[in-house]
Design brief:
This protein has 155 residues and is α/β, with parallel strands linked by helices. It contains seven helices and six strands, in the order ααββαβαβαβαβα.
Length: 155
């Protein structure tokens, strides 16, 4: 920040302008609450996606991580917190033909409680798959452990 304000005013202004444009243009997708420049995000508007699969995530940025893997071809629903959950919007999404819900939450007691709450709201409507991000988190933890042990072995 110091360099930008003292030495490179042009780049600082470009960054400030880019942030201003993002704040003005980015909104929540009407369907899934992800980030979008339009009423519907590109994922919700894509007819080639499998709309029978719904991945529920905690934050819109989680979608970017899952999409970068290229392994999920369904749609998403963002829940920032249980307090802000619009359960009627989620139920409407499920009733549009969702057959499988995947919870992509980081494992914790709070997210387990949120999953139970959502399952209760959607009971008898669909099947659930909770292991998606749990397995991802487990793989990361195992990789981190092996990396630590490998690096520690050099001492």
């Amino acid at each position: 920040a110091y360099y930008m304000t003292m030495e490179d005013h042009f780049s600082a202004m470009k960054i400030a302008h880019a942030i201003e444009k993002a704040v003005q243009k980015i909104q929540r997708c009407e369907r899934c609450s992800a980030m979008s420049e339009d009423e519907l995000c590109p994922i919700c508007a894509d007819v080639t996606r499998d709309h029978s699969k719904l991945c529920i995530v905690e934050h819109a940025k989680d979608i970017l991580q899952i999409e970068s893997s290229g392994d999920f071809d369904g749609t998403y629903f963002v829940i920032e917190s249980i307090d802000n959950l619009d359960s009627s919007k989620l139920i409407d999404r499920v009733e549009e033909g969702v057959e499988e819900v995947i919870f992509a939450f980081t494992p914790s007691i709070a997210t387990d409680a949120m999953i139970l709450f959502i399952e209760d709201k959607l009971k008898d409507r669909i099947k659930y798959k909770k292991e998606y991000l749990y397995m991802y988190s487990l793989i990361i933890a195992i990789f981190s452990l092996f990396t630590y042990l490998f690096l520690r072995g050099d001492e």
